[in-house]
Specification:
It contains four helices and 19 strands. By secondary structure, the protein is mainly beta. The chain has two domains: 47 residues, Roll (SH3 type barrels); 215 residues, Fumarylacetoacetate hydrolase, domain 2 (Alpha-Beta Complex), CATH 3.90.850.10. The strands form three sheets. Strands 1, 2, 3, 4, 5, 6, 7, 8, 11, 12, 14 and 17 form a twelve-stranded mixed β-sheet that branches. A five-stranded mixed β-sheet has the order 9-19-18-15-16, with no helix packed on it. It has a two-stranded antiparallel ribbon with strand order 10-13. The protein is globular, with a radius of gyration of 18 Å. The termini are far apart. 44% of the residues are buried. The structure holds magnesium ion. Magnesium ion binds next to loops.
Length: 267
């Protein structure tokens, strides 16, 4: 099923996208019992498909990307956190920070895994049973704050407001045969900047769930950002950073396209 979250007359609501292009209201709780009703809805403003209780992100998880950064392939998943407040809706702007300024804001296309039910100590074999579905993410990163000004922590550079666009569609796990066989791309102003496949992950989706749930309970709605392939702006020669007026699209096979404009932070 392809699920969207939108702003309905009484607040955020979920709907299923039907093959004929219509949308049907979903009743119940995506993280409990829910069903697709017969009621057709005209979606309002499209929201990020989930309001996560946690965003767990993995760095250097594609081989070619680990090599382009000169860091080498990690021995175990490299976890960092993004603030849940930095989630941005599809179509809404990525804001370039101007008070705590950055001149090195970068894109990262990522497959986002949405956890469907409470998960602790999952085995690799059972790991995907805990997945509700998948969506597209842009792990926007202020490289200056990530690498040099953040006290050795990624959190600051990864967690500015608007730095986690998600969506627009949550595709349930039954529709994705193998999350590690999907093409994934970033398109900046019409130019392809990243173009690879999730098969290049160092730690695949089951391995990440097994690893993460071994130390912490994964709550329903948790988003796992699974890393980005090579081609990020900071590693290009010369580097390419986002600027006001840009448009960034993240495309993932079988999931869809997530597009956001780039603007200066509003005063
Ligand atoms: Mg990333």
């Amino acid at each position: 099923m392809r699920i969207i979250r939108h702003l309905g007359p009484t607040g955020p609501a979920c709907a299923a996208l039907m093959p004929d292009g219509s949308a049907r209201e979903i009743s119940g709780d995506l993280f409990g019992a829910y069903r697709v009703t017969n009621r057709t809805v005209v979606p309002g403003k499209i929201l990020a498909p989930v309001a996560p209780p946690n965003i767990l992100a993995i760095g250097l998880n594609y081989r070619r990307h680990a090599e382009e950064g000169g860091k080498g392939v990690p021995e175990r998943p490299m976890l960092f956190l993004k603030s849940t407040g930095c989630v941005q809706n599809p179509g809404d702007p990525i804001e370039l920070p101007r008070k705590l300024a950055s001149s090195e804001v970068d894109y990262e296309c990522e497959l986002a895994v949405v956890i469907g039910r409470t998960c602790k100590n999952a085995t690799r074999e059972r790991a995907l049973d805990f997945v509700l579905g998948y969506t597209a993410a842009n792990d926007v990163s202020a490289r200056d704050w990530q690498m040099r000004l953040g006290g050795g922590q990624f959190c600051q550079g990864k967690s500015f407001d608007t730095f986690c666009p998600l969506g627009p569609v949550l595709v349930t796990r039954d529709e994705i045969d193998d999350p590690n066989k999907l093409s994934i791309r970033t398109i900046l102003n019409g130019q392809v900047m990243q173009d690879w496949n999730t098969s290049d992950m160092v730690f695949d989706v089951p391995a990440l769930i097994e690893f993460l749930s071994a130390s912490k309970t994964l709550l329903p709605g948790t988003v796992i950002l699974t890393g980005t392939p090579h081609g990020v702006g900071v590693a290009r020669k010369p580097p390419v950073f986002l600027k006001a007026g840009d448009t960034v699209t993240i495309e993932i096979e079988g999931i869809g396209a997530l597009t956001n404009p780039v603007v200066e932070e509003r005063p």
